[in-house]
Structures are given as C-alpha cells and as structure tokens.
Amino acid sequence: MQISTKGIILGQVNFGDNDRYVTILTEQLGVIEAFAKNAQRMKNKLSVGTQVFAYCQFDLFQNRGKYRLDNAQVISIFYDLRSDIAKIGLASYFAELTRSLVREGDRAEGFLRLFLNCLHFTAAGEKPLSQIKAVFELRGLSLCGFMPDVVGCRECCCYEQERFVFFPLEGFLLCGDCLDECDRARPKIPLNMSILTAMRHILYADFERIFSFRLSEQNLRYLEKVSEKYTLATVERSFRSLDFYHTVC
Ligand SMILES: [Zn+2]
After folding, report:
1. pLDDT tens per residue across span 150-175
2. Which residues have C-beta within 8 Å of that of residue 26, sequence separation ≥ 6?
3. What is the C-alpha to C-alpha distance for residues 112 and 93, in angstroms, rounded to an integer?
4. Are 101 and 137 found together in one domain?
5. How much distance in Å is there from the Cα of 152 to the middle of ligand 1?
6. 175 CA to middle of ligand 1, Å?
7. Would you place residue 60 in the very low, low, confident or very high pLDDT band (cuts 50, 70, 90)?
8. Are residues 142 and 33 in the same domain?
9. Separation of CA 149 and ligand 1 centre (Å)
10. Which residues have a Cβ under 8 Å from the Cβ of 206 and sit 6 or more positions away?
11. 204 C-alpha vs ligand 1 centroid, how far in Å?
12. Is residue 182 scored above 70 in pLDDT?
C-alpha cells in the first residue's frame, strides 16, 4: 500500500554501507520506523530527507506492517538548530520524548504541528529555550491524554489563592487552605499565581496563542522545573538527551 504523509525525522541508524533506518513522526501514522535504501549515499534522492529533523512530504510503501521509504521531498531541515549545542540538545530531547509519547497508528496532526512550532522557535532563537521546553512538554503530554488538572484546587475548586501546590505524580492542585497533613508527605511543588497562570495558558489557550505569555527569567526557570517534573513522573523514565541538555544549558 502506498501512503503519502508529511512528517519529520526523529532519528536515523545507518545499516550496512548504503542503507538507513529512520524513525519518523508522521501526520497520519504516528511514529513509525522505515527502511531507506541507499540513503547513506550522498547523491541518493533520500540522502537529505532522511537526516534528523528533516521535515518532508514522505512517500512510503507499507507491506506486512513494515514501511519502505520511497521518496522524501524536503520542506525544511531546520538548519539553524545546528548553530548551537543547547538548541540541538533541546531538539533531541523533543525527539526522544515524542518517541515515548506517540505510538504507531496514532493520528498525530496536532502533535506534529506542536513539534514543528517548537522546533521553529528553537532554531530561530526567538523565545527562551526554557519557555519552549515547558510548552512542548505540557502541551505535548496534554495532546497524548496526560493533561494535568490546573483549573483550580481539587478540594474546594478555588481558582485564585495566595498559595497553591502542584502534585507532579498525580497532576493536580491543592490550595494552601486544603493542604492537610497526609498531603504534606507527598511530592509536591509550590506555585505562585504567575507560574500557575502560565501553566493554564499553555494547557488551555488556542494553539495559535500558546507562546503568547511572558514570565520573568526566574519564574520561567521555575516553570521549566515544574513542567519537567510532571513530564518525567508521567512517562516514568529519564532521557539521555535531557541529561545532555542540562549539561549545556
Ligand atoms: Zn482548596
């Protein structure tokens, strides 16, 4: 069966002297592995379109659950990512997290759109990396069914309070008044209203507006920490690319 879909290369492994296996986040098929014959050869038509972070229109042939890549028409290769080790580290983390979250067979138009937007802002250097990272994590988890509930306190439903705490393992909030002794022993993170408002914005705003919020550098760093804790607690694993990113950023 022939399938044509837009997608982005998340990873590649060279095979033998000429061939290559690639992992692609596609609009229609979720995350798939595909065989790209002769893609290692410089002059081959698949050479550029099978590089990591190449965004392409892919022509695939599916047979018995396996995919062969027949053509890759390059739309963007996000060249500017390569100019900065922190940017490439962050983009690599996005790719690794995506492989944990999106499965083969999932429709992933929304996730691909988020991925491309975050990669664009990372490459362009138009937003702080900590902001892009928090947006990718929170909105990405939410698209995959892991949206935390930060609308209000889980006990009394209050929306604004001097003090809130967020529980990263469970993904909910309690206000200072409702926090009781048994909650005190569980892992939790205090949130100020600026950070909570930013989290609500990332999770609930229209897609076009997800980056339209501002925080002080200190609050952005804190948001990044909260978002990362929730992410790692949700996917229950660590990421080598994230460890690397933290060594350079
Ligand atoms: Zn409460």
Report:
1. 999 999 999 999 889 999 999 999 99
2. 5, 6, 7, 32, 58, 108, 112
3. 15
4. yes
5. 8
6. 4
7. very high
8. no
9. 13
10. none
11. 21
12. no
